[in-house]
Amino acid sequence: MQKTSLLIRTLLTAVTILTLCPGIAQAEMSVQILTTPDQKILPLEVEFEAVVSGGTAPYTYTWNFGDGGSSTLPKDSHYFRESGQYNVTLLVTDTAGGYGFASKTVTVSSSTFNPENAVFTVYSDTTKITSTVQDSRDSSILWVGTRGGLVRLNTVTDEKKFYLNELPDLYVKCIIQSSDKAIWIGTYSGLARFDYEKDQWTVFTAENSGLPYTPPPPVIEKSDEVTCLLQTSDEAIWVGTNDGLARFDYEKDQWEVFDEDNSELPFNRIGYLVQTSDGAVWVDSLARFDYEKNQWTVFNTSNSGLPSYNILSLLSASNGAIWVGTWDGLVRFDYEKDQWTVFNTDNSGLPGNSIWSLVQTSDGALWAGTSDGLACFDYGNDQWTVFNKDNSGLPFNSILSLLPASNGALWVGTWNGLVRFDYEKNQWTAFNTENCGLPDNINSLTQASGDGLWGGT
Description:
2 helices, mainly beta, four-stranded antiparallel β-sheet, globular, 38 strands, 2% helix
């Protein structure tokens, strides 16, 4: 049977409908949807592109593909897997608060269905990795979250198992493995729990659970986006979303939601979650929540030493201190003493004020990945050691990710490949596109068995 190609490119400019959202500021903005191809077979992959003029850039994009799928990118592709007509909508928001809206009807017919086309569905976008978790039961198994679904990878046999229809959305945002060995998957449109041994899936959305959400602007469907996950020492699952923080007791099927309206949470959007040794949960707002006492402590630029609301990274140190990476420097906070210490390029050896990643090595040293190099800080001795592309084997100064290796080395992900740094020997080993085919941008790092490493790009 001849395979029908999904890559025929026929540019089709959609009929543009520019409307005003009630109660929202009008924008002098034109919004168009471009689709490629215009081929009516199933499954149908369509590339969508937003063309915007006017307004005040940069823009925020909210796509609704009419079948439960969504995107926030200016250009993206989407698979339609069932026949029918789908009303695709696009809401564009500019920085001045203006909105523009366009819609397009996509017709999908199964009359010329070719089973071989399903191969493209399996591999759609799974090369764009968002998160990785090594299975605690079997170190050869790696769970990989992608923009096109969940992948179970056997790193020994290279066997891959793809999970697509089981998920509430193909766009996986985060993954954790809980103490009962279940895999929890946060997606763009809900949360899933997967018990691999029982082959049992449980999906949680705003419709069937306590997952928080706020009704969105008109014509755009709500999105139950899960941004981060954390299991705390009491085995509860904490779920960060764009619409608040949720605590889920899976055994009791009990949800508790905390947001700006019913608690002291300063912002509904949750980007990071960490638990400190005293059991408290910290969110990147910056707020500390003692669940047992139902007590919130909120820190901001007015009541603390926090230099900025723009928090990029959080680390709970072994001595109980919280390290906070911001756009405007690094902060150490001793909660017991209520003591804040701010480090920036003006008062310390910090090479850059934007702190993208933070880790602590087994010797207690703090490592900070910045926009202008890598810094090692011995807090007890107030000693900074800075590495950049001029004085070390770093290929690029912007550090995206850090991971301490089990043998004492440090893995460093940059905009220009990966580096392994043996601090004791001052030995740098670079891996990049030129010498091993590794992609450039290493956004996430996960320890594999032995001295192995998995990097997400």
